[in-house]
Design brief:
This protein is an alpha/beta fold. The chain contains 16 helices and 11 strands. A 6-stranded parallel beta sheet has the order 7-2-1-9-10-11, with helices on both faces.
Length: about 375
């Protein structure tokens, strides 16, 4: 056969070949003033990163938010100072669309500013940082606020953590649940509503973990209380077992999904639940069923934030049978999250909150029982 004969079209014609490998013809409607966000995503966001965002939104609302799916969300970057806690996370929690969270401590700390009635303001990049420093103004790119916000929030967390309910060892989910209770009370005192995602998580029983509890202003303040002789101890190993227990329970009764906003330590922590179950505890499992990531990181630099779902599959983090149900959007989270949240609320509406925080001890005990039973079986065979 001559070389050029390999390039002959399929006997059925090129149209049949294209139809077999594509979804829809590109023929979008014109944008209009009355077009909704959902319509925009479904009909205008067709290709490139817009196409991936459309796929992510449809995967989220169509499969990841099904009633038998437990959805965990990881939060990295300075999202709450930009108001995304108020605008997106609180509504998602209140609609029952987030079941558990892994966040940086910084997102939790800055979230508290709003519940305490403190103000953050829009600025602009390229401001005179020497002048800001002289006037005790803090800048996060194009967000500015008073240095007093930090001092006031520090004082709140120290005073709160000195109270009796905090004087024992606990995981970060338990600590944040208690802190959410105090922030919820402060919101009510100040006549505020829906300002703190941590307060919303308390009200709806959503566990909030921090993968690096010492790496934030909250951790710094708790460390100071330790010097005072306080009895509060944060146990990160408890977090590992409790988060794995959530996923183990989810997979016994249904499916598990993760929505990863950014990367870093929260991404690894929410994904390591499956290797903890399979590799370390030795329990039979196959990985998360659905994987949605928003990142601006490249996979070729060796950083975790750019690691793909295909790579995660080799670690057992993602079910290899579910790889078609994974989407990575190379996009800024501050752009993607409002669109995804609006689409999810519009298309899915409300789910009954799972209130996993109320059952966290029970779920962890079930994981423990499964692990110990496996050890007994192994000992008996030996």
């Amino acid at each position: 056969m001559k070389h050029h004969e390999h390039n002959r079209p399929c006997p059925k014609g090129p149209g049949a070949t294209i139809a077999a490998i594509t979804h829809k013809r590109i023929d979008p409607p014109a944008v209009s003033a009355d077009m909704s966000i959902s319509e925009l995503l479904d009909t205008i966001f067709l290709s490139y990163n817009a196409g991936r965002l459309r796929e992510a939104a449809q995967l989220l609302a169509g499969k990841m938010l099904a009633d038998n799916v437990t959805l965990g969300v990881s939060l990295s970057g300075a999202l709450t100072p930009a108001g995304l806690g108020i605008s997106c996370l609180v509504p998602l929690i209140e609609h029952g669309l987030i079941d558990w969270i892994v966040s940086t401590g910084a997102n939790v700390y800055h979230d508290a500013h709003f519940a305490l009635g403190m103000e953050l303001h829009q600025g602009r990049p390229g401001m005179d940082d020497h002048q800001l420093r002289d006037n005790q103004v803090i800048r996060i790119y194009d967000i500015v606020f008073d240095y007093e916000n930090l001092l006031g929030t520090d004082a709140f967390f120290r005073a709160m953590a000195r109270k009796e309910p905090f004087q024992h060892t606990m995981g970060t989910a338990e600590f944040h649940h208690l802190a959410g209770k105090f922030l919820d009370a402060r919101e009510r005192e100040l006549g505020l509503s829906g300002k703190s995602f941590l307060a919303a998580a308390y009200r709806h029983g959503v566990p909030v973990f921090t993968s690096s509890p010492g790496d934030s202003s909250i951790g710094m303040n708790l460390a100071a209380l330790q010097l005072e002789g306080g009895a509060l101890q944060i146990d990160p190993l408890r977090d590992v077992n409790q988060s794995a227990a959530i996923v183990w329970s989810a997979k016994q009764a249904g499916k598990s999904a993760v929505m990863i906003l950014g990367g870093g330590s929260p991404k690894n922590f929410i994904l390591q639940t499956e290797p903890q179950i399979q590799e370390v505890l030795g329990l039979e499992e196959s990985g998360h069923d659905y994987f949605l990531q928003v990142t601006d990181a490249r996979p070729d630099t060796g950083g975790l934030s750019g690691a793909t779902p295909q790579e995660a599959m080799t670690w057992g983090k993602v079910d290899p049978e579910q790889l078609p149900d994974t989407v990575t959007c190379y996009l800024d989270t501050t752009v993607a999250l409002p669109l995804l949240a609006t689409y999810a609320v519009a298309r899915k509406g409300k789910r009954t909150p799972r209130r996993l925080m109320d059952r966290l001890a029970e779920l962890t005990e079930k994981l423990k029982d499964s692990y110990l039973e496996k050890l007994k079986r192994e000992a008996h065979r030996a």
